[in-house]
Amino acid sequence: MSFAQEVIFANIDQLIRDRAKTHADKPILSYADEDGAFQSYTGADIERLTRAAAITYRRALPVKDVPFTVALVGVSSFEYYIAFFALQRMGLTSMFISPRLADQGYVHLLTATGCQIVIAAEPSMKTMERVRKTSGLPAMIIPLLDMKSHSDLGLEEEEIVPVPAVSKQEFIIHSGGTTGLPKPVRLSPSTWLAQAAAVAARMPRADTLTTLPLFHSFGLATLLRCLVNGTTLAILNANRPITASIISSSIECTFSRALVTVPYILKFFTEISGGVERLASLTQVIAAGSAIPNDLAEMLLAKKVRVYHLYGLTEAGALMEAWAPDFRWVTPLAHAAPFLKFEPVGEDGFHLVVMPGLSAKVYSNREDGSYATKDVFRPHPSEPGLWRFVARQDDIIVLMNGEKADPTPLEEAVSRNPHVRAAVVFGAERDSLGMIVIASDAAKAKMLKKQDILDSIAPDLDLGNSRVPGYARISREAVVIKDTGTPFPCTDKATVIKPRFLQTFAADIEDYYQKRARAHATNEAAEVPDDQVLSTVRHIVVTALNMSVADVDDEADLFALGMDSLQASNVRSSLVKNINLRSASATLATNVVFEQANIARLARHLLDLRQGLSTQQDAPEALAQALLAKYSHFSDSPSRIPSSLGAGTCTGTVTGGLLCVLLTGATGAVGAHLLRNLVINPTVSQIYCPVRAPDSSTARTRILSALEHARLLPLDPTIHLPKIVAVPCDFAALDLGLPASLVAQFSSTLTHIIHNAWSVNFNHSLRSFETHSLRSTHFLLNLAASSIRWPKPTVTFVSSIAAALCAEPADAIPEILHPWSTVAEMGYAQSKWVAEHMVAAAAEQARVPARVVRLGQVCGDTEWGVWNPAEAFPVTVQAACTIGALPVVESEYGDEEESWLPVDVAAKALAQVALAAEQNGARFHVLHVVNEARILWNAQFLTYLKKHGLEFEAVPQKEWVRRLEASEQDVQLNPPFKLLAFFKTRYASSSGASQPKFDTAQARKWAPCLKGGVDISQELVGKFLRYWTQEAWAKKPQDKLLRLHT
């Protein structure tokens, strides 16, 4: 029996309470921040947060006569998910409303459902205020609760008081406005939860990444399926664009094995190197919202991408699933089959009708209680019971991204123009809409040219666009003008016969999209010189955004400026039309605008294409040099660098000769130990700790929690703890979000800066480290450079041996700056290399005493053995508990040497280096904090594990990978499986490679604790194992799996 079938839930509150027990310490949701780093939330976290949110929202509602329906308007942020859960837990009906509707759409939904209250995200507040001003609805607008401050809600012990029910609780989701206005559809929580369990039972149990918003019915279904199934749902940041690169890196860092998206997004993967292969590596790719275009489907089938295409309707739930040999064909699900009727229509089509009796059917549009879907299918020529979607029976156009667009408002607005004989919108299964306009006799009589006609209908097109959602709007560039007298299919009453019209002009439509997709060498547009490409791109972008050039910086993020997918598509179209790429083979990717992200990169990309170069990914070395140039300028007024100490210069240290330290990264393993070393040092008076948090209380709580987790408490409450000053900050902000008064204070008080915070994600590209890591490094270096003290604060930057891992010295890698060729091929290492050179520039330009410390592999501490169980080495050991085996490394060197430095020793060494006086008269130093003593994996580590009672079979590395690949794919039951790709790479070759040695001569002079190295003894390995088995892995799901192997 599958997990999903064990319990049938009646409502969301019951489900969340259950997950708080079954997944108290296991993640069920994971949400990305704007830098792409994912924060995971356990079942207990979600229960606590939604309870606190429910209590807070309840206090904002009227005391009496609480409205039973509350709408949610906004993008699908983490706060949006929490608000939905909170409303459901209060017993209220929650209505999802897309933030992209036209104003009349909001009014219609609120009126039709009797909804008086809206919870709105900040970007939607102005829209809701405008709607209320013109219509009187909604009566109350409540801001979406900011969950960044959830730690201070102070409601963890309170219970939710349900709102008295006045009717049956529901979800309300709306259609895309296929009748001109969106249609509210009421859904039963119990029915949808039961459906989620049934669907989950038919699919592989895998952690999932979704790109769908919660107001999309399949987005809601995906959330419920994962919750019921007990798997983790990873959600992209709603404030960032969706690109293939973002999805790919998110899959890697969340270890998701399934992707839920729309066909439009799948197309992005065909345009990047290795994109389709990345999809093929997943257990499942679930496409929803629209049919997959045939050419894309054939490509996915050829690459063996495991696509699961589920056909369903908001009005009737899941109805059909994909046929395994070819997902383009679907077959009715067992529960739905008796209620599906296919009515003949046209020559070989069948209109699908859902008959009364299906529990998930909540809407009818026929007198007999059935629901006519208006979806037309055709049967498989040889396999009974298989159907393939053909078209819509009505005028509704289903775009490639699943959005349903009603063309009527646009066609009616433009058709009223006297110069128009007929206007028909097209775009089924495309990324955007277009329109064919047949010129009238009046246009011919006035001898109007096509451009004149286009100018004439522009106001009408604007009117039509104002009446449809943003995704359904049509730009002037998307209008195809046909001459007066062009024949087209119509009835005796001169009404356009649309299916035949679209067929008649199929070549024109295809030509329109081809021109959008490809830049031809014979482009009709004027040749734009290379030195004018940037200005041309700038003009196109600001025009699309309806902004002025002065308001848009060339490096400003276009998505952050408010550009939506339709505007991005129009910008791409204008680029193709106005900038000749001088090559028939040069093409702009569908999502090029969001992939390149800003005007400067977009212009550079176009110039690269002209030269036959590819810029699908940044050239790492060129980008590194560009970032270094950008962040290596430090201001230092000569008056602040006295030849002899004089007025305006602060000498010495803080009161009494004590030291004042700013330490970043205090909540990490190394940072917590480093903080304790500083706290107990009698020469240190204060340690300022910037921490990502909304306020000081939350920041301090995070710091103390890190110390507690590392077994570093208690500390003396009168001597030690007062030294710690928790500083809430935002590492993405230019000034870390610090108050100007505090920055000014630092200028005269700081004696040392230790920069230990860094985004640790080995899957991210170099560019993704700019905002949160490199920018903050530049701020801290400038903070030291602009200090009024003399000597200036000493800066210690905690780097990584990865920044020099590829150096090839005769003996050991020296403690110096190294060229680009020595850096490891991952964004994390590359970003450290850039930062090292930034630190060197600050030392040279602004006379900042600086040390770069390359830190090696850190392991558990010597006292307790606390070693992060999510790191690669502990996860490898965990395989003994899940598949009953550990790898024997096969190397030409006979065994593999590991250099592991206990975290407490590493922190002590960092503190000794950071606080040490200058040596050799030099201002800049590079030191290697690594362990000289090594441990052999096969001969020692595996032996020590067995001596401490860990039972496993030692097998050759390739056999171990084979067993892991064939084992349980549920990473909650089998955590090592999530690193399968890493292990395949690590153990792909039997030849092996010797671990590089790093010279530590200088480090040993500065940090005496490193002398002689630290023995990773049998006793210490026992401490690691005891921590993992008795605490980190205790009562984890893999215990169940282990029993299967014993």
| Separation of the first and last Cα atoms | 21 Å
Alpha carbon gyration radius: 31 Å
What would CATH call the architecture of the domain at 651-859?
A: 3-Layer(aba) Sandwich
How many E-type strands?
A: 40
Mean pLDDT: 88
Protein name: Catalytic
InterPro entries: ACP-like_sf, Adenylate-forming_Reductase, AMP-binding_CS, AMP-dep_synth/lig_dom, ANL_N_sf, FAR_NAD-bd, NAD(P)-bd_dom_sf, PKS_PP-bd
GO molecular function, one term: phosphopantetheine binding
Keywords: Phosphopantetheine, Phosphoprotein
Fold and architecture overview:
Among the domains are: 407-517, GMP Synthetase, Chain A, domain 3; 530-614, Non-ribosomal Peptide Synthetase Peptidyl Carrier Protein, Chain A, CATH 1.10.1200; 651-859, NAD(P)-binding Rossmann-like Domain (Rossmann fold), CATH 3.40.50.720; 872-1038, NAD(P)-binding Rossmann-like Domain (Rossmann fold, 3-Layer(aba) Sandwich). It contains 34 helices and 40 strands. The strands form eleven sheets. Strands 2-1-10-9-11-12-13 form a seven-stranded mixed β-sheet, with helices on both faces. A seven-stranded parallel β-sheet has the order 29-28-27-30-32-33-38, with helices on both faces. Strands 6-5-3-4-7-8 form a six-stranded mixed β-sheet, sandwiched between helices. Helix 11 (294-302) links the parallel strand 12 and strand 13 (307-309). The longest helix has 20 residues, at 827-846.
